[in-house]
Design brief:
- This protein folds into 2 domains: 197 residues, inorganic pyrophosphatase (n-terminal core) (Alpha-Beta Complex), CATH 3.90.1640.10; 123 residues, Diaminopimelate Epimerase, Chain A, domain 1, CATH 3.10.310.30.
- The protein has 11 helices and 12 strands.
- Strand 9 and strand 10 form a beta hairpin.
- Bound molecules: manganese (II) ion.
- Manganese (II) ion (MN) binds next to loops.
- Manganese (II) ion binds next to loops.
Length: 336
């Protein structure tokens, strides 16, 4: 059981009649699963809820939305489309930039905003905030909130929250998969989740393009810092050659963590708009959120991201030297 205080969040939700749920751009399994689970839970309490995304729903998560795919905010977004909501719930981010393009709009609505998040950085964008950086996933926090409420959880809602937790813990492999995580996973199984089915939906439905992209990413692999840092990169050309979408990079970085000597991993991806997206992972000791923050990004101790201008080579040089410094500070033998 968690030690967070859910009372304010519950007060906020119990007053609501019609809730708009949203999350960060490039939504992942945790944000989408949390949003879907929250929507189901609210429904079970007679509160209507609609999920609105700031960017496209990746196909691989369509299985979470069997009834209706969530709407996507577009540039021609109109205020009229949002009429009727009395409360906003934001899951899996507390940062303004990650909510574009709808942040200013949501602010101008003057509605209560409940933020449920587990990232280290927060810009206090909510009127009520449920923040717990020790939670492995927002899906875990939503599951706990439902238990305290108590709100009925359907098999579909449980599947969504299980997907959220499984995604952010790398299928319960990362060190954040603690007893609290397993405790809620057990509850979700009791509510009807079939883990094998979720596993297949999440990890065994890749496109051939994604596998080709993985091949190119592995082909780019370089090791630095005496084998402790793995670096892979993908250019726009790699996406073209493998016929993969920009959204199909998810999880590729973890492959390099399979190398025994590797402690930290970096993946550099050339974006459509020519900036470089950098993803960081770490097995231990190196706090990659701190490194990402130096480049204007953020995240968790063991998984973080940032966006850099310039070429892949320039970005790589900066990142490798920042991580080398971090190795030296931490006393890891990989630093010089
Ligand atoms: Mn998350």
């Amino acid at each position: 059981m968690s030690s967070i205080d859910f009372s304010e969040a519950l007060d906020c939700l119990k007053k609501a009649q019609s809730v708009l749920i949203s999350c960060h751009v490039r939504p992942d399994g945790d944000s989408l699963g949390s949003a879907a689970g929250m929507a189901q839970m609210l429904g079970s309490q007679g509160i209507s809820a609609e999920i609105i995304l700031p960017s496209e729903l990746p196909d691989r998560y369509a299985f979470l939305f069997e009834q209706a795919r969530p709407r996507v905010v577009t540039d021609d977004w109109r205020r009229a489309q949002l009429r009727g909501f009395d409360t906003v719930v934001i899951v899996d981010t507390s940062v303004r930039a990650q909510l574009e393009p709808q942040y200013d709009f949501l602010k101008s609505c003057n509605l209560p905003v409940l933020v449920i998040d587990h990232h280290l950085e927060s810009e206090n964008i909510g009127t009520v905030e449920l923040l717990d950086p020790s939670a492995s996933a927002v899906g875990l926090m939503v599951a706990e909130l439902g238990e305290v409420w108590p709100a009925e959880l359907s098999a579909g809602g449980a599947k969504a929250l299980f997907t959220a937790i499984a995604s952010d813990t790398g299928w319960f492999r990362f060190p954040n998969a603690d007893s609290r995580t397993y405790c809620q996973a057990w509850r979700l199984l009791q509510a009807g989740v079939r883990p094998t089915e979720v596993y297949r939906s999440l990890y065994m439905r890749d496109s051939v393009g994604k596998i080709r992209l993985l091949g190119r990413a592995l082909g780019s692999l370089e090791l630095f810092c005496e084998g402790r840092l793995a670096c892979m990169s993908l250019l726009k050309e790699d996406f073209r050659q493998s016929r993969a979408a920009q959204t199909e990079t998810e999880g590729l970085i973890n492959e390099s963590l399979r190398i025994g000597s590797v402690i930290a991993a970096v993946m550099l991806t050339e974006d459509e708009n020519d900036s470089i997206r950098v993803n960081f992972r770490s097995k231990r000791q190196i706090n990659v959120a701190r490194i990402a923050e130096r480049f204007g990004g953020g995240g968790h101790e063991l998984a973080a991201g940032a966006q850099l201008a310039g070429s892949i080579e320039q970005a790589k040089e900066k990142i490798v030297s920042a991580i080398r410094e971090e190795f030296s500070r931490s006393g890891e033998p990989g630093g010089e």
